[in-house]
Amino acid sequence: MLVVSATAGYAQLGVGRPVGLRVVDGIIAKVDNQIVLKSDLETIYAQEVARAEGKPLPPDTKCKILQSLALNKLLLAKAETDSVVVEESQVKSELDRRMAYFVQQIGSEKKLEEYYNKSLKDLKDDLRIQVKEQLVQQKMQEQIAGKVSVTPREVRQFFSRMPKDSLPYYSTEVEVGQIVKLAQTNNKAKQASQTQLNDLRARILAGEDFATLAKQFSQDPGSAVEGGYLGFFKRRELVPEYEAAALRLEPGGLSPIVESQFGFHLIQLIERKGDSYSTRHILLKPETGTADTNEAARELARVRLRILGDSVSFAKAAKDNSDDKLTSGNGGLLQNRRDGSTYLPLDQLDPAIFFTIDTMKVGSVTPPLPYRTDDGKDAVRILYLKSNSPPHQANLDDDYQKIAAAALNQKKNKALDAWFALNRGTVYLEVDPEYAGCQLLNSIN
Prior knowledge:
This protein is of the alpha+beta class. The chain has helices at 38-52, 61-81, 88-106, 109-116, 120-145, 152-160, 187-205, 210-217, 221-224, 240-247, 290-308, 314-321, 325-328, 351-357, 396-423, 439-442; strands at residues 27-31, 34-37, 169-170, 173-182, 229-234, 258-260, 263-273, 276-284, 344-345, 369-372, 378-389, 392-393, 429-431. The strands form 4 sheets. Strands 9-4-11-10 form a 4-stranded antiparallel β-sheet. The protein has a 4-stranded antiparallel β-sheet with strand order 5-8-7-6, with helices on both faces. It comes from Hymenobacter rubripertinctus.
């Protein structure tokens, strides 16, 4: 069963549509207190039409999309019942990563704002709920199918059932590894941020307005324009350091300086409502400088020498040294987001990687290279070209990992289907009469 995002969004961003594109909206399905909007379906359908490049889509395409959207909502409904939550720090990190990526793709923050006719803050606000829902859905899917695995025998059986005249043809693909070191903020920069924040704290205690100072000095773009206001959050939704400091305060109270993974905070508790509380904060992020980046580069250079001297494998070095948690547990290898394998088509590579590995020999490792992470942090990295596969038709010898990933995906989808069948009768479902003919959707009853 393919789970599509109900809010994947227009042009991949998921935060609205460009000026001039009008979509008539309305609720077309309810799963408990979760709703599916007509625009959810139509946006994804439009993307499918675009991918088809003029070829007709199957007549039941909209029904299949609606079925997947309903499953997403069922996942959210059951997550609420089972108290499955994701931490706000994870939501914020994913938001920052996505926004940094889209800014990079379109060229600048200003161009992104012009394209959507919205400020960067409004775009992030629109995207926040969608990202949180997607992370909850992923967590539920992991609970349902995360322990599913396939044996070599199952992989061979899966491949043997594939029609020989329909075997996929793979273009040139590479396996690329990376070890990333973030530029660590030095004590002098940290002290400067703390000193500035202590000065702001003194000014607030002397009578100056917190919100006014937050607008002027806070380096959290999402909340600074709102005077540092973050809104209401439940327990365990914000990073522990922030939450602990906030909940020790009385309404109107001011915290001492609090350090978290995001920087240094000055927090004011505004209100408590049951298990929720609202705050505002001023965030200062110590800056990294050339010296910090150079130190990270020197550390990576030492790691590279150990790899080249065969005293450690690249995979072990990545696990022990890389600050990129997405790849460090995978031997440093980048993953293909489409199928989960480590084989990356050349035409889908990031240009910075493509032009670096274009002249590399298999097995070679680059010197440390400047790098900026998806969430905008200064770093350096070394790249490793593990393999370079010429174009060929799929076979078990060369493509076992990809075929195993496809077999695993099929088995996980079956686990999701079984869960769906078991739980579909435990929720209230209402469908707009216009879509009553969608037999796949009716099976949820």
